[in-house]
TrEMBL record, chains A, B:
Keyword terms, alphabetized: Oxidoreductase
Pfam family, one: ADH_Fe_C
Protein name, as recorded: NADH-dependent alcohol dehydrogenase
Oxidoreductase is among the record's keywords: yes
Species the sequence originates in: Duncaniella muris
PANTHER family: ALCOHOL DEHYDROGENASE YQHD
Limits of the Alcohol dehydrogenase iron-type/glycerol dehydrogenase GldA domain: 9-179
Length: 390, 390
């Protein structure tokens, strides 16, 4: 086990009706003037935004709003948000939505007090210092941004999708998680969210660090819970208990607890970021295509942990590590398929992937070598993209 | 799954040498004058206290100290600590030790700014308001107090052992966890700590709340990790990796994550508190006696969850719930025995337990009914004490 530091100060309110606590939470935090960030029409149509603003009004908290965040959120809206926050004197942000909305709010939060271009933080040219505080009302369990200090933004100029990691500077002060708000998610979005949270766990699980049994077991436990509950939410979208289990799993998948004490991987996420930056696919669906291909590739080189994963998570019964690893890849692909996700680029709608472009952008953005469990160069990542093609 | 709130703001520094970060952590927190609380000679003899004070000195942080905390810590030292903190103007506490030391520091922390008797908080007559902040250097992985908002103190007058729960008021600001500091723990203390952390998980696992798969799976995963690593630390006390896994498990066992979304039980802890208050036994060893008896008793009434526990944690293979539950009780007793713990009061040195005294004190202190998985009255708890006798 490696040395680590771990700090997750976010206050979670979980359950029915918790979004109505927003006003009280903002007031306790002594926020006076909040900018609400949200996405498209669903938060408006469902009445959620009305409930949130009513809760703020009841506590006398001023608010402005910034709507229109799209999946794979882009820098243009971040710049607009920073500008509007500064002009209105907003002292906090309230993200009402999923990962794209939260990530946009986080980028605005660190951009407002910063003299330079907020993109400096994502490009690694500056370290986040002071930031506006942030609250969340979560509507999509997937990205785990409600419990992380991270943000992923795409720069429109050059379609550069980069992630920013902070220790606690961008962790939300509070997050309201009401599983009922997820009842109306379309099946494809529900399934993509499930893939996303599973891969957040796997990116931490597949590590070169040995002897991290406690973190392994937590990761395996979370994955087993997700695999048990996923078919229920797909079959019955308003199954409160199953939605609740999935929602809380999504938060724990990415708050860092599954990474404590070890190096992480993240090659699959980096590879998928290029897919969604270039082809505009849904992030979780892109992961369902990339990750089994990645797992297949690395299992040929280093099967032991893949075999452990399969035995403990999918109850694979093969004694031999190589055979168990092969079976594990099948189980993972089979599981993603069973919840309606594509497992090839072709099924994802990418008929003729530009492997050269994918690989060159990937290594241009992330360096010549990526990954932790196995270090991958250009030849490796091209092979994985090709395995994922069809 | 029940509605819940969850907030664990403690910053954990984990690994070799992290106790040397104490000065920097105190300085970052803007503490100027710290009272160090510790127990007996081992923190002095090992040189740990010297390293901690050197780290404080290097950052120019003043300190006084309060030693002499004993297992099952008592109110007398709390009163002394409150008095000395007030007189010296200490603005923070630094607990260097295990649960008894941390719990004493927590009681002092809430007592200092309070006009009345600190015992009011434990007796349920007052709610903790402002408290001095607290840091921890952990030396015994067991009580989990380094990550919890709780404290357990015994009042000498009447041997009343009561626990106090707070949301975040008494959660440490930081906790330094260096597994090397646990190498020299005697085997009995190591084993008792393992029992304590396992039972912290079980008290949350055995719940009347249904459909909490994610929290169940986390709990089971932690228990499996502890069961895998425990024999290693018993066989080889300076096995860093095994000690590290056990140490981090002990923190996660009690920071609340295994209780999210459900009612908890705590009958076994309440029953053990009487045992250690009256007979002065080591808390974890007392639990190793009480919990299998409790599990045996409740499994006769409600075997299903006991069977699930056995199948998932001990790989019990019985199809029938009642048979599986019976087998599970054997597995748990066998495990505690295998790490050298007593599993009867007789083996614990209590030859002729005073059942009337135990039961009457228990229900006098905790009310006529205790427990969550099964509600237990006087007849039940007497039966459990009798099952635990020999």
């Amino acid at each position: 086990m490696d040395n680590f530091t771990f700090c997750t100060p976010t206050r979670y309110l979980f359950g029915r009706g918790v979004e109505n606590e927003v006003g009280r939470l903002c007031k306790n935090a002594e926020w006076k003037n909040v900018m609400i960030v949200y996405g498209g029409g669903s938060a408006v149509k469902s009445g959620l935004l009305d409930r949130v603003t009513a809760s703020l009004d009841a506590e006398g908290i001023s608010h402005i709003s910034l709507g229109g965040v799209k999946p794979n959120p882009t820098d243009d809206l971040v710049y607009e948000g920073i500008d509007r926050c500064r002009r209105s004197g907003a002292d906090a942000l309230l993200a009402v939505g999923g990962g794209s909305v939260i990530d946009t709010a986080k980028a605005i939060a660190c951009g407002v007090p910063y003299d330079g271009d907020f993109w400096d933080f994502f490009a690694g040219k500056a370290v986040v210092g002071p930031a506006l505080p942030l609250g969340v009302v979560l509507t999509i369990p997937a990205a785990g941004s409600e419990g992380s200090g991270n943000s992923v933004i795409t720069r429109l100029d050059g379609l550069l999708k980069l992630s920013l990691r902070t220790d606690t500077a961008l962790r939300p002060k509070f997050a309201c998680l009401n599983p009922e708000l997820t009842f109306t998610l379309p099946p494809y979005q529900t399934a993509s969210g499930i893939a996303d949270m599973m891969v957040h766990i796997m990116e931490r699980y597949f590590s070169p660090t040995e002897d991290v049994e406690v973190t392994d077991r937590l990761a395996e436990g979370l994955l087993k819970a997700i695999i048990a509950e996923a078919p229920k939410v797909m079959a019955c979208p308003d199954d409160y208990q199953a939605r609740a289990n999935i929602m809380w799993s999504g938060t724990l998948a990415h708050n860092g607890i599954c990474g404590c004490g070890r190096r992480e991987d993240w090659a699959s996420h980096f590879m998928e970021h290029e897919l969604s930056a270039i082809y505009g696919v849904t992030h979780g669906a892109g992961l369902a295509v990339i990750v089994p291909a990645w797992l297949e590739y690395v299992s040929r080189i280093k099967p032991a942990k893949v075999a452990q994963f399969g035995r403990r998570v999918f109850d694979v019964n093969e004694h031999d590590d190589t055979a168990a690893a092969t079976e594990t890849v099948c189980c993972l692909r089979g599981f993603f398929s069973s919840i309606g996700l594509p497992v090839t680029m072709k099924a994802l709608g990418i008929e003729a992937p530009d492997f050269n472009l994918l690989v060159s952008k990937l290594h241009e953005n992330k360096g010549p070598q990526i990954g932790g469990y196995i270090t991958l160069g250009k030849e490796d990542t091209e092979a994985i993209y090709r395995l994922a093609a069809e």
